Amino acid sequence: MTDPAAIGGVVAVAVATIAVGSRGLRISRTPADFLVAARQVPPGLNAAAISGEYLSAASFLGVAGLALADGVGALWYAVGYAAGYLVLLAVVAAPLRRFGAYTIPDFAEGRLDSPLLRRVATVLVVLICAFYLLPQMEGAGETLQAVGGGPYWVGVVTLGVLVTGAIASGGMKGITFVQSFLYWLKLLAIAVPALSLALIFHHPPVAHLDGRAPATFAQATTVEFPHAEDVQVSSAVEVRIAGGLDGAEVDGYLVLAPGPHQIAAATRIAFPAGSPAPAVAGPRALSAAQWASPLLRLGGRSDHPLAATYGVILATFLGALGLPHILVRFYTNPDGQAARRTTSLVILLLSVFYVWPAVFAVLGRLEAPSLYLTGRTDTVVLVLPRLVGAGVGERILTALTAGGAFAAFLSTSSGLLIAMSGAVSHDILGRGVVAFRWAAIGTGTATTLAGLAVAGTSINVLVGWAFAIAASSFCPLLVLGIWWPGLTRRGALAGLIIGGGASSAAVVTSLAGIGERGWWAVLLQVPALWTVPLAFATMVVGSRATKGSLPHDVMRKMLVLHLPEEVSRRAG
Amino acid sequence: MSRTGPDPERPTDPATQRVAVRSGSPLPHRPRAVPDPEDLYQPDPYGQNLLRSLMRAQLGVTIAVLLPAAALVATYPVLSSLLPGLASASMGPLPLSVVILGFAIYPPLVGLALLYVRRARRVEDRFVDLLHEQ
Asked: Which chain B residues are closer than 8 Å to A207 by Cβ?
């Protein structure tokens, strides 16, 4: 079903973005422009720009969706997305600004004098950006599916073509003013609907989940039940059913009478458009108490939840400082102390944002049980206004959330594609505008095609994997590179390859659907648990063993990293 | 490059003392001979120790902020795992987990961030004062 309000919201965001972009400060992302801008961007504006670029489909849709599907424990992702900036602040913000490296490969080469290390870092930049881009594509696909009614690929291809085209043609260059505008837009687009739905519309307390008025299927939907379910049907509905119902084999049309029904595993039920959705007694087999548990449930299952929780905490807390598209923004700070002020403001802005996905998760649990039947929990932020109410207010809210989601894909995927094309063109194709364009077209096309293949995987889990790879590779490189003079070229190289390789292998294995149960699920789906310590240990042990490959002027590099600008200026 | 230099004092200048920059309490006593910014760029142990003392002080601030944050974040899951009552507790109409993970955990994080910015700045100001006091 096409929702004109939602389409209107998306178009409005696009138009507003172009308007702000053409009128606002034009600060494009070449190193030279950054130098010019260095003293012009105040911390408040810079912090909003970083937050705007950072808040992606995972934050806008994924957190609420995963918390709805797997329980409150999934909110650890949001906590980690914000708290990662505390680690970034306390460990890398000021030294990285003072070092003056523009990207992570620049830092790797500058700190350790190794062109080889630079190339390995470039490969990791591409890998992390790709894993981060896939869920943005998926989010776009699911959004257009939810509000526009088209097939999944339409949204993926639309976003892919739009962003690739914009970046290859040299427009939309991560303009600071646009990104900060998109932060405030996203905050508005999630806070206003969440507050309105929570305060204006009547809803029962969490404990009273039974006997709810049913939600309605907006479009004809065939539901497959992978497991046996007990459902509560509130009003009679004619469905086409193939499988087991109330202990009997059924194949054909029948009327589901009001009352409780048992549905056997592997049953398919086709609901017509506009029919009320049965309320599931145990959505994804989660009772109210299981859903409310603060521990993470992988795929809704309780497989070593404590270890899984710590794995996600480790990945998100340590991953944020290794994200290639974010670090670049720190060079618009005039000095190290301004970089710290900016980062502390980012934490404040992100904290204000992440309250709202939690509200949506709770409201979704109360109001949108049909999402459990369709498995499209990631769309809860988009469809909740429509499921809850009707009328003008509901249309405005739908337009807001659809526009906010579009803003999230747009800002993050443009930042990622720029970081990725920059790395590919600089280190593989050769410098220059033409190389950058081809790199943008190539990487944009590749991620768009890959985005078609990830439909149905949780947006948030995919982004969590990008964090896990960053935490297992760039995090130890930056932390040890900044604070430990003893880091050597070979040690860093070994750590990047082993940490980045192990985490990527685990992620690809999970994506292939291998090891979904027990300890394998934990070790493969939240690999940071073991790959982060492995990467740190490899770098430390490797450096101790190869003291000969210590760069020759380590202490001078340490001075550049740590000396306040005031001192270095006077001494220099 | 030796990382554990011998005595930090310069043999040629007995009046020079080991300089430590710390956050929090003011320096107990001022060194008589004031270090010069140029000292930092000399390859001898004295300049290196000056830098190391700055790095140590900054790392101290980092740990003073990240340790409470880690404690805050790490205890809640393990307590919930050990005490089922905590995992299923509710606060008013909402599960306690939603209140904590959806809201209450953020103000301490912001507070720690602001604390870090202030303390790190103080360490650097002290270091700058030390070098420029002639």
From this structure: 90, 93
Q: Give first-to-last CA distance, chain B, whole Å.
A: 31
Q: Which residues in chain A are classed under CATH 1.20.1730.10? A: 4-202+294-451
pTM of the model: 0.84
What integer best gives the mean pLDDT of chain B? 77
B61/A86 Cβ within 8 A: no
pLDDT score at A206 = 43
Compare A169 and A477 and report the one with higher pLDDT: A477
List CB contacts of A429: < 8 A, sequence separation 6 or more: A435, A438, A439
Provide, as residue numbers in chain B, all residues whose Cβ is less than 8 Å from the Cβ of A72.
Answer: 95, 97-98, 101-102
Size of interface A-B (CB pairs under 8 A): 165
Query: Rounded to an integer, what distance in angstroms lies between the CA atom of residue A300 and that of residue A560?
Result: 48
How is chain B split into domains, by residue range? 37-132
Distance from CA of B14 to the nearest CA of A (A): 24
Longest dimension (CA), chain A: 86
Strand partners, A298: A301
Which residues in chain B are closer than 8 Å to A571, comparing Cβ atoms?
37-38, 40-41
Distance from CA of B127 to the nearest CA of A (A): 9
- The radius of gyration computed from the CA coordinates of chain B, to the nearest angstrom, equals 22
A310: its two tokens: 């710590």
Q: Which fold has domain A4-202+294-451?
A: Sodium/glucose cotransporter (1.20.1730)
How far is the C-alpha of A127 from the C-alpha of A137, rounded, in Å?
16
